[in-house]
């Protein structure tokens, strides 16, 4: 599975890197609700793809990461439902790694890394506003 290629095709098709905008244009229902310790989940309800994001998240970068991760599941694992409970956003399972790679490819453009070759991962994290952990999933 070439996740980088899949993300590039989506960005080219929808002309945005915004996971919320892509989901909207794809007809994926996105809702926000208080979910306690759950960051978000993807499910199919009566044939409709749905993503729910925890409305209590007040960090826009974390919200984008969770949304991009869930969008990754909706695209890469279309017929499977995923719910993320505490600590599983960066789980080591195959499907979770794939969704994390999707999120990293969507949210962190290659140009940020190529244009700043001397920056360390910690500095790139500050520059992008995304975590070093998300940067670990970025492929060049």
Topology of this protein?
Blueprint: H1 3-14, H2 19-26, E1 29-33, E2 40-45, E3 48-54, H3 60-76, E4 82-83, H4 94-107, H5 110-114, H6 121-128, H7 132-135
Parallel strand pairs: 1-3
Antiparallel strand pairs: 2-3, 2-4
Please give a structural write-up:
- 49% of the residues lie in helices and 14% in strands.
- It is α+β, with helices and mostly antiparallel strands and 140 residues long.
- It has seven helices and four strands, in the order ααβββαβαααα.
- The relative contact order is 0.15.
- The chain has one domain: Arc Repressor Mutant, subunit A (Orthogonal Bundle).
- The longest helix has 17 residues, at 60-76.
- Helix 1 crosses helix 4 and helix 3 crosses helix 4.
- It has a four-stranded mixed beta sheet, covered by helices on one side.
Q: Could you write a compact summary of the structure shown?
A:
The chain has 140 residues and is α+β, with helices and mostly antiparallel strands.
Shape: globular
How big a fraction of the residues is strand? Answer: 5-15%
Give a count of the beta strands, DSSP E runs of length 2 or more: 4
The separation of the N and C termini measures: 15 Å
Task: Indicate the multimeric state.
Answer: single chain
Low-confidence stretches: none
Q: Count up the domains.
A: 1
Q: State the CATH class.
A: Mainly Alpha
């Amino acid at each position: 599975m070439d996740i980088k290629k899949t993300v590039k095709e989506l960005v080219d098709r929808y002309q945005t890197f915004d996971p919320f905008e892509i989901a909207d244009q794809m007809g994926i229902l996105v809702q926000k609700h208080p979910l306690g310790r759950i960051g978000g989940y993807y499910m199919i309800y009566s044939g409709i793809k749905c993503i729910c994001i925890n409305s209590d998240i007040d960090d826009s970068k974390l919200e984008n990461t969770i949304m991009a991760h869930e969008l990754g599941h909706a695209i890469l694992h279309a017929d499977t439902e995923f719910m993320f409970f505490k600590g599983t956003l960066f789980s080591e399972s195959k499907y979770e790694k794939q969704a994390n790679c999707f999120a990293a490819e969507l949210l962190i453009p290659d140009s940020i890394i190529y244009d700043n070759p001397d920056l360390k991962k910690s500095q790139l994290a500050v520059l992008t506003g995304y975590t070093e952990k998300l940067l670990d999933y970025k492929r060049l």
